Amino acid sequence: MAPLNASTESKPTDVAAITLESWSQGFMMGALVIMIGMTLANMRRRNLLHKLILLELFLVLPNCVFIFFNPPVWGWYLSSTATLLITSWSLHNVVSWMKSKPFLEKRGRRIYIYTVVFAQLYWIVELYANFAYFNGGHGRLFNTTRPFEPLFRDPWWIFTTANLFWNIRYRYSLTLGQILRISPRFAVLLFSMCLSIVFIILEVLAVTPVLSVGGINPYWKFASVFKCFTDTVILDDFKSALDKLSHYRMNMINNVPFGSDHTGTGTHSRWYTMDQRPRAATSSSERAVLASTEHVEHLKTGRAETASSDKSRTVALPPAASIRGAIRHKDEGSVEFIEHA
């Protein structure tokens, strides 16, 4: 959120601080507008997860413009929009829980969501401290609670990222190279997850004496953007996306082509990845039927050609009546075949 050592009476006046804060707010605003458009274009109306992701993005928007106001509106607007921002952070954890739920056991799912709910007690105290700091000049409580903000916001996201990587490696036996070839979109999701954690670490260092940022902390904005981007780039839960990846990988291993063009001289196959779908098939079920039908026809054609070639290579044996020979019994009792030309 806001810097720890900002003025309690007015917004920062230093040119460098104002420039950095304005740029970071503009960056977050532009990224959110693009992600909202992506979500609206790809979401399904009756899907609750998609609606929550869209709501998560809209809740962050008002906090991106508080730099344009002057005191006393500046302090009230900053603290009011911080309430929406914190709500968006908590909603992001709920979205992460919904996306990771298929990978968790019943006990794990309960621990995940219950801890998210219990963390709201801290955010109630944090909101009061924020109002007191920016509107009344009482900064002691805010200076005490602010360093703990990442602890009550990001552990669930870090666990979600680690859990996803673990399932990719050990449950689906996929490598990063395979994911990049099959679905670049999913590779972008993993890269955004890693970037968000990098900026979370930088934010933790910035709210402590380890890293001095001169009163402005833009790192939480970068972390929020990349966390929201991971929700937007693939709207469905992680298991559904990974099941599709695994399906395409197995088709490639089994040499099942998607969108084969049969001609009189042979078969020309075009391989399609998860993000490159044949125009003739609009759904995954239609593509599966298309692939299965073409594969069976290809096998039938191959068997017919093999049978025809085997038949042409068969040696015609003469009938038994055409074999002319004589059997002569010798005194020793042996039998001898005599061929007549």
Detailed description of the structure:
With 341 residues, this protein is mainly α. Residues 5-9, 258-296, 311-318 and 320-341 have low confidence and may be disordered. The protein has a domain at 15-245. The protein has 12 helices and 4 strands, in the order αααααααααααββαββ. It has a two-stranded antiparallel sheet. A two-stranded antiparallel sheet has the order 3-4. Helices cover 62% and strands 4% of the residues. Keywords: Membrane, Transmembrane, Transmembrane helix. The chain crosses the membrane at residues 22-41, 48-68, 74-91, 111-136, 156-174, 186-207.
The helix/strand series, from N terminus to C terminus, equals HHHHHHHHHHHEEHEE
Strand order of the largest sheet: 1-2
* Separation of the first and last Cα atoms: 106 Å
Poorly predicted ranges: 5-9, 258-296, 311-318, 320-341
What features would you highlight for this structure?
single chain, 341 residues, mainly alpha, two-stranded antiparallel ribbon, two-stranded antiparallel sheet, 12 helices, elongated, transmembrane, membrane
